Amino acid sequence: xxxxxxxxxxxYASGHLQVSELHRIYWEESGNKNGKPVVILHGGPGAGSSxxxxxxxxxxxxxxxxxxxxxxxxxxxxxxxxxxxxxxxVEDLEKLRKFLGVDKWQVFGGSWGSTLALAYxxxxxxxxxxxxxxxxxxxxxxEVQWFNQWGAxxxxxxxxELYKSxxxxxxxxxxxxxxxxxxxxxxxxxxxxAARRWTRWEAATLSVIPDPLRVEALVEPQIALAFxxxxxxxxxxxxxxxxxxxxxxxxxxxxxIPAQIIQGRYDVVTPMRTxxxxxxxxxxxxxxxVEDAGHTMTEPGITQALLAATEAFK
Length: 314
Ligand code: STX
What we know:
Elements: E1 13-18, E2 24-31, E3 36-41, E4 62-67, H1 86-99, E5 105-110, H2 112-123, E6 128-134, H3 141-148, H4 157-164, H5 175-183, H6 188-203, H7 212-218, H8 221-236, H9 246-249, E7 259-264, H10 272-281, E8 286-290, H11 300-312
Parallel strand pairs: 3-4, 3-5, 5-6, 6-7, 7-8
Antiparallel strand pairs: 1-2, 2-4
Bound molecules: ligand STX.
């Protein structure tokens, strides 16, 4: 059966929630006020949400809750790294859930959204009804190395050169640290160029079929600065996990929750090994490999699989 994205819709409610003295996060609700709650977790970290994220769930059935995580999208302060860790984001989800009066919700997240979904569900399994994950990422050293240092470089040497050549030769042995210095320096022009180069590298490698318009949209300063600064901050801190394999090792806490793991075979940003390892440790979860897709939720096979999952969990 083929599924269509649900129609574009506007939120029936939205606002900002003060989650700490410093941070306020944007949230919105669309679909059915009295429907089955789902929370949608965006990528990056630092990418912010988009209106497209409202379209993967039947709006007559679901109460669709979308938010911008700390420091990005419409959350403030913009691109802020203070008090910005995985565990702050996990607790923000609890604050938002209680604020909105939701008892339990479905958790839907792709890419970094899958990381946060796993961290959240493992911390608060009792409030999660189902889990839908796409493009699985657990911020292990091997995953960050693959994408930002050596690995993906061999598939996209042309794009990698644009990313790497911004950094002088004597700093190229640790590109994440070299970018962090520039993304947090006092010179605004350097920060901005670093943000563009960092973001372009990821934007250009997202899908099997290139999408130059998406690349241009993502490298705009108001997206790229938050995305690059926040993502780099999380990567150099290994996602703020205590153990390298934490999210994989702790899967026992959530194995009882119905789940689907959706992964593109040719995902260059978050290669399939992580999804496969997760699926091996979680035999109860349905593992869907999309054979002709990369990383994004907009590739046809990935969109289909995500829609099939939300329909199955209605
Ligand atoms: N970072 C991958 C990620 O979460 C590990 C991600 N990659 N691209 C995106 O998110 C956007 C398409 C949202 C920019």
